[in-house]
UniProtKB/TrEMBL annotation:
<feature type="transmembrane region" description="Helical">
    <location>
        <begin position="150"/>
        <end position="170"/>
    </location>
</feature>
<protein>
    <submittedName>
        <fullName>GGDEF domain-containing protein</fullName>
    </submittedName>
</protein>
<feature type="transmembrane region" description="Helical">
    <location>
        <begin position="81"/>
        <end position="105"/>
    </location>
</feature>
<feature type="transmembrane region" description="Helical">
    <location>
        <begin position="111"/>
        <end position="138"/>
    </location>
</feature>
<dbReference type="InterPro" id="IPR000160">
    <property type="entry name" value="GGDEF_dom"/>
</dbReference>
<feature type="domain" description="GGDEF">
    <location>
        <begin position="205"/>
        <end position="332"/>
    </location>
</feature>
<keyword id="KW-0812">Transmembrane</keyword>
<dbReference type="InterPro" id="IPR050469">
    <property type="entry name" value="Diguanylate_Cyclase"/>
</dbReference>
<keyword id="KW-0472">Membrane</keyword>
<dbReference type="InterPro" id="IPR043128">
    <property type="entry name" value="Rev_trsase/Diguanyl_cyclase"/>
</dbReference>
<dbReference type="Pfam" id="PF00990">
    <property type="entry name" value="GGDEF"/>
</dbReference>
<keyword id="KW-1133">Transmembrane helix</keyword>
<feature type="transmembrane region" description="Helical">
    <location>
        <begin position="49"/>
        <end position="69"/>
    </location>
</feature>
<dbReference type="InterPro" id="IPR029787">
    <property type="entry name" value="Nucleotide_cyclase"/>
</dbReference>
<feature type="transmembrane region" description="Helical">
    <location>
        <begin position="23"/>
        <end position="43"/>
    </location>
</feature>
Amino acid sequence: MQWLRQRVEAVVDVRGTSDAARLGRWLLALQGLLVAATGWWVAGADRASLSSAVLGVLTAGCATATTWLPWDRWRTRMLVVYPAAGLVMLAVLGTVAPSVGSAYTGFLTLWFMYVGLVGRVHAGLLLMLPAAGVWVVLQGSLGPEKIVRLALAGLVWGVLAEVLALATSASKVRTEGLAHQAETDPLTGLPNRRALEASMSRLSGGDVVVVVDLDHFKQVNDGGGHAFGDQVLVDFAQTLSGCVRGSDLVARYGGEEFVLVLPQVSSHGLGAASVMARLRGQWSLLHPDITWSAGVSCHEQGNEPRTTLREADRALYRAKAAGRDRVVAASEARELVGVATADRG
């Protein structure tokens, strides 16, 4: 039972297009297998049982075949293929095996649940008209009693899809908000160490990592108080953010230490040099009595990202050992720091 519960939880855990496709695939295959397995019992020994069995097996096979489609690269609207396929299968079933069709109208409700879970609000309303048509085909006729039943079914479908879509949307907003909080430094508003590690995993050859640290920050705290020290950190974070390009990342690594990830758009690393030069000029105007030091490392293709970060951190320690208020580059990044970085070593 534990294994079954884990499998079901994995199926219904809808976090992205791939997960939603897995749920749709599971529902479509379930529909096909149930129709194939029970059609003989509903229809007896007539030809309808054979038709339902063949149709059910084909549906389950088609659902399984969609496993190899690149759902992770497709948008959510592509998921319409699953409820559309489910409705088409039911319509065909009601046409070729009318004696069994009415037994499977419950699948229509399942597809509205699916649309509510994975689609946008009001997406279920777009499914209402084709679903009503399929319901009529499955019933085989439409009298006053069935019109009332169809109206009630339509009401249930619409409400079910809307409520699920609203609940899912609210849950996604809460989840995204919590994820943002978990990856954001509360003081500076910058990405934190957790977000930095995720970004570092995507480093490419030639990308530059800079570790920047405010010099003698304990003295800043002791002299001006912790409130002043916090404001200095906020000012430094804002200055860093104003010195980088839109594709760059600025993160607070911890304490008074910050990390910049600079994807390189040129072969000479001029982006890193210009960022360091702008930072030195702008910060000296804001807090001329507070200096900073930095270590720079260039990522080499095939190296571990943490190796690149460690090299930048070692370069920072060399900058501090040499007297602070300077930029020092790791050996593989010497060409990235020159006169433009105001390297005083």
